[in-house]
Amino acid sequence: MVRKYVRKTVMQQWSTETMEQAVDAVISGIMSCRQAPIQFQLPQTTLERYVKKRKDDPNSVVDKTAGKYHCVFTKDQELELATYLKDMQKRLFGFTMKELRRLAYQLAARNGCEHPFNEHIEMAGEDWAQSFMKRHPELSLRKPEATSGARAMGFNRVAVAQFFTLLNKVIIENKITGERIYNCDETGITVIPKQHSRIIANRTTSGLPPGGWAEANESGWITIEVFLKWFKKFIEFSNAKKETPVVLLFDGHASHTKNLEVIDLAREKGIILLCFPPHCSHRLQPLDVAFMRPLSLYYEDEVRKWLRMNPGKVVTLFQISTLFGQAFVNAVNMKTALKGFEKTGIWPTNEGIFSDSDFLPAETTNIPIAEAQYEPDCASAIVEPTPVDDPIENSDSLNNPSTPPPKVTMENSNKTQNLPQFSWMLDNPNAPIKKPNISSFPALPPEIIMPIPKLKTAVKRVQRKRGKTAILTESPYKTELTEAIERTNKVKEAQKK
């Protein structure tokens, strides 16, 4: 079939809405069959045919047809299929075009629909897939963003509810207001845009934003010592006192949560430390939600401008502070900060900020975070993004599991995420089925042919205790951390002997 068909006739140039109005006008007696075509600019014989059809069957609707050609599925069936695709994408199991074509064939064959699909390869054609996407513009092809099974499972109702319970407790007991809630986070920057290696250290502080400073570390990663130095600066910045305490929110990095000196200093200065639940910072941390992405884009832009202004040179550690300082100044604004706290539901406090669809990925395992002694095996669930060709142009790449293709997703969604494929569900047509109550498909709907994936792998016991959301400055947490550090030190001393 021609990919870009140019219409050569003027047939059926009217809309179904206009035809419906004209039919209603004739049936109600407002106009005659001669007046209505002139008023609504419709072909008279076509209008008369639909009027007769409406008189014979009051429930009939105007449906444009193109002779012997018709869609395989009805409008309701296609709408149900599109809804199913969007639901699967929200659960992090987005469809490729090839999987969509396989599913379409299964739906047509097992529901007795007349179809022209290829029965040898058991797949709908590329033309049908493209036409389906055009009929549903809310769907589009997106390259999935890499995510891990731990992050998909970590953001669940139990974890979020526990965090907001502690947050409300801190706000109410200490009469905290919005200007006394802070969030800190760390990020890696590079000397080359889009490069994933981290820098070793800053050698100069020239060009940093006002009030900025630099700390050196051989590994390039934040450590307990570096975070302690930053925390002392934060105390000066926040003017925290026991009479007017402030709240500092951060993720569960060991440099934050296993730092006794920071906890003691926070208790002394009136700073309440609240840790996010594990694997939830991408939705609960204001800096991750609103600030880090713009900062990264501004920094990459500064690096590109510097390279254009200095041809033949490369960015070194000596230029990092200047480039980062300019990017930081461009990224920081009050609107971004307020939006970050608002979108995460931290301030104004809103426990219902997340809808049911936000928790759909966690329903694959449905394991509450309270079961800290168990953790599912997520090692195989980590997916890395790999550039791939469009599956419509190169279907061979779809057979290679190491190159995940684009996924069918919603046009309005900001991100599309990907987990391992579940194409094997289409290969077992004789599996036991349970038909849902309502469906536009007469026999088997999409949820039956390709069920929503559920974890079947047995969980295993982990060796270390899993992190959790907690108020670090409370006595129970400090006591537990002190005992854990003492046990670790005893083991190290015993190993030295």
UniProtKB/TrEMBL annotation:
Organism of derivation: Aromia moschata
UniProt cross-references to Pfam families, sorted A to Z: DDE_1 (PF03184), HTH_psq (PF05225)
Domain HTH CENPB-type intervals: 65-142
Protein name as it appears in the record: HTH CENPB-type domain-containing protein
Domain of life: Eukaryota
Transmembrane feature ranges: none
Keywords: DNA-binding, Nucleus
Annotated region (Disordered), positions in chain: 384-414
GO cellular component: nucleus
Subcellular location: Nucleus
Regions annotated as coiled coil: none
Gene Ontology MF terms in the entry: DNA binding
